[in-house]
Design brief:
Shape: elongated
Structural class: mainly alpha
Strand content: under 5%
Mean pLDDT: 83
Number of domains: 2
CATH topology of the largest domain: Four Helix Bundle (Hemerythrin (Met), subunit A)
Radius of gyration: 21 Å
CATH architecture of the largest domain: Up-down Bundle
Order of helices and strands: HHHEEHHHHHHH
CATH superfamily of the largest domain: GntR ligand-binding domain-like
């Protein structure tokens, strides 16, 4: 029998493997920044060139992207490098946004279900903070568009299923401009904002009480409301 000589792995390879593992376990989600090179070097107890080489390995694998002055960003696992065709389609044909919302209803009913089964205390703290801030905005008359979107992403994170998270982030990125337009045109009254707040709070409570079927139903009710309002917007803006 012939054996091959065991070769120790390069430091940069070991660093890349650990960061990759963190990305795959959703410790770092799509769009999130990794710690700066200096901080990573301190955490790993290595030199900055080793960290830089590890980040280059991850970039070559399509897992991260470096930006001048903006750090290193985790890329979506389902991201399409040549732009975002789904976003372009929605811009040109707003009716297609309704197709995406239909898909979201199916996906997010499941993310709420699994979040109720798997959410950890730190996930609950994030969700509770978001809903509390939505309540504060409601009282002061401020919109909660960014909080709304963040709530849905954190629910996906709480499933601890990296595929759900990356799929959700990609869909939200594609729908971002459409959703902003809907918020500004359709969710106008204080009653509208209160309804949205109460719906998010109901999803939160079901997840907190570990009631997956209820969480699924509450999310479906919320997205059914969003679907009806979005349909009104699309009908009003047909060319």
């Amino acid at each position: 029998m012939i054996f091959n000589t065991i070769k120790p792995k390069k430091i940069s390879t070991q660093i890349a493997e650990q960061i990759r593992s963190s990305i795959m376990s959703a410790d770092f989600g799509p769009g999130e920044r990794l710690p700066p090179e200096r901080e990573l070097a301190e955490l790993f107890g290595v030199s900055r060139p080793s960290v830089r080489e590890a980040l280059n390995i991850l970039a070559a694998a399509g897992l991260v992207e470096s930006h001048q002055g903006g750090g290193t960003i985790v890329k979506s696992l389902v991201e399409i490098s040549a732009g975002n065709p789904l976003s372009d389609i929605i811009k040109c044909e707003r009716e297609r946004a309704m197709d995406v919302i239909e898909v979201r209803k199916c996906m997010e009913a499941s993310t709420a279900y699994y979040a109720a089964l798997r959410a950890l205390p730190e996930d609950m703290r994030k969700l509770e903070t978001i809903v509390a801030e939505m309540g504060e905005n409601l009282e002061s008359g401020k919109p909660s568009l960014e909080l709304d979107a963040h709530f849905h992403i954190v629910v996906a994170q709480a499933t601890h299923n990296v595929v759900w998270l990356h799929l959700m982030q990609s869909i939200f990125d594609a729908m971002k401009q459409f959703q902003m337009s809907v918020w500004r045109a359709v969710y106008i009254t204080a009653d509208d904002h209160r309804t949205l707040y109460l719906q998010h709070r109901s999803v939160l409570e079901a997840i907190r009480e570990k009631q997956p079927e209820r969480a699924r139903d509450e999310m479906m009710a919320h997205l059914g409301f969003a679907e009806r309002r979005s349909s009104v917007y699309v009908s009003q803006n047909k060319e």
